[in-house]
Amino acid sequence: MSALLFLIGLAGGFFSGLLGLGGAILMVPLLLFVPPLFGFPALDMKQVAAITIVQVFFAALSGMLVHWRNRFVHKDLVLTMGGASALAALAGGLLSDLVNARALLLLFASIATVAGVLMFLPRREDDPDATADSVRFNRPLAVAIALAVGLVGGLVGAPGAFIYVPLMMYVLKIPTRVTLGSTLAIVLFTATFGMVGKVATGQVDWPLALALVLGSVPGAQAGGYLSKRVRAGALRWMVAAVVWASVLQMWRHALSG
Domains of the chain: which residue ranges? Predict the structure, then answer.
């Protein structure tokens, strides 16, 4: 079981580092459905949620460090959007009992769909390999995006990291590689708060989490290393595939029942 979780963590970490995403959208279905295929007991959703947030934290941290070394993490953008998103998500979580959960999920799915559509719009970058120190951004617009996504994400219990990538690329006009590196750093804000909550309440199965982390860290390093060598256009298409997989899954949950 530990060897299998190591390989799952390796895969999740690799795509986290490559595409600048936290990896939960990939890790959750893998952890739910793969172990039984190999004759191991199925993990329940509570176990999966707890060990996934630990994996996401370490994968995002590992991948972000690679992008940081490549100068693709925009510190000011990360602090601006990460701080606003974390505060909004906290407010959303506190208010979540007061609102209709299904209506909010429909709203979140709609936001995700708009973000997904953006990925198919033509986009020309003057310098696809631009580094963070050459990038300027609209601060009020960045705060507005982070507050909106963070608030609704906190209300429905989904951080929505995959939504930030298209919004940063197409609304804030951030270069692809800086977007991917900075998004990993933003994911750390959400993952940190989530992991602290899971650890404090004793929900983390540490042997399982450790196996995932041991795979995730080198996987994220490899993904981050490869990300710099893949064409920006190809990275956008890969991110689009992940975003639309997430969008379809959200609509399935929103419309079920």
Answer: 2-255
Alpha-carbon separation of residue 126 from 123, 174, 189, 239 (angstroms): 10, 11, 30, 20
Single pTM value for the model: 0.77
Question: Rounded to an integer, what distance in angstroms lies between the CA atom of residue 176 and that of residue 132?
Answer: 11
Neighbours of 106 (CB within 10 A): 17
Euclidean distance between CA atoms 100 and 248, whole angstroms: 21
What is residue 41's DSSP assignment? P
Q: What is the pLDDT of residue 101?
A: 66
Q: How many CB atoms lie within 10 A of CB 1?
A: 14
Report the distance separating Cα 124 and Cα 127, nearest Å: 9
Q: Which residues of 43-56 are buried (b: 16+ CB within 10 A; e: fewer)?
A: beeebbbbbbbbbb
